[in-house]
């Protein structure tokens, strides 16, 4: 069935890659990318979207009037708009809450008005900081290793599952996304909308404009490529903190499956990530970046943590795998290699963005 898809945050890393991938897979779909172009580098995606036949609409989810039902007329909304930085929530809480919470409400109002299906991209940051800091782990030569036995419900050797406790503080960023999840559920119940929530961990891949507080793997590769300084922040400054990652192409595969199975999956919440097999410490990431680029970055050790930092987060995505038949495919070596080749191909365009020049 041909669909009319609206992707909010559609010129950003996640939104643009999903739009381009869906356009290639479903040439009969009408896809609109909606974005305020606030994040530097998103403007580079406009030509790519146009070339793929994707309509671009400049607008802001904070402004309800920008989401005009008659002009946009979606039957499916992929809500990818967000201020994605935990640290930004401490520096600019009002903008974060207006974008991440009020913006989602405005998108839901559009769905209510048009009857559109609604897929919401949330975050693993909805899980409380204290609970994540209380996970059991051991220390190896290169990483903090999640222990096989955990004493908290929803935590296991596979990582953090959807049943992990939600009581406690989680950062304004995490709170804004969790609040949005709750509102999504209420709209679904009150107005009969078909909705789905994906709690994504670290997403990465080419075309991610990595920054200190978001897009760590792209940032790490860019720093090695351009010779920029880096820091191991917190947990003794060893660089052993661990995150799992998911290549954006693997997320595309999951989203495409979910759209096709939405009648069966509606109302579900999924943790989405690469899991134990696709996890890296910063120290391990450094070694891979050195191997791929043949270059060494200067790295400063800072022992103290920042607000919201956790030592280990691994996504337990077994529910998503079991209910959709999906399986991540891209590993660390190939993912970082692909990011390196993307930077090399577009060096002139990317250098001022990735180096902050």
From TrEMBL:
Q: Name one GO molecular function term.
A: CDP-abequose epimerase activity
List the SUPFAM superfamilies hit by this protein, alphabetically.
NAD(P)-binding Rossmann-fold domains (SSF51735)
Q: Which InterPro entries does the UniProt record give?
A: Epimerase_deHydtase, NAD(P)-bd_dom_sf
Q: What is this protein called?
A: dTDP-glucose 4,6-dehydratase
- What region holds the NAD-dependent epimerase/dehydratase domain? 5-273
The UniProt family comment states:
Belongs to the NAD(P)-dependent epimerase/dehydratase family.
Keywords linked to the UniProt accession: Isomerase
Which PANTHER family does this chain map to? DTDP-D-GLUCOSE 4,6-DEHYDRATASE-RELATED
* EC class of the enzyme, as a word: isomerase
Tell me which species this is from: Gloeobacter kilaueensis (strain ATCC BAA-2537 / CCAP 1431/1 / ULC 316 / JS1)
Q: What is its EC number?
A: 5.1.3.10
The superkingdom listed in its UniProt entry is: Bacteria
Identify the coding gene.
rfbE
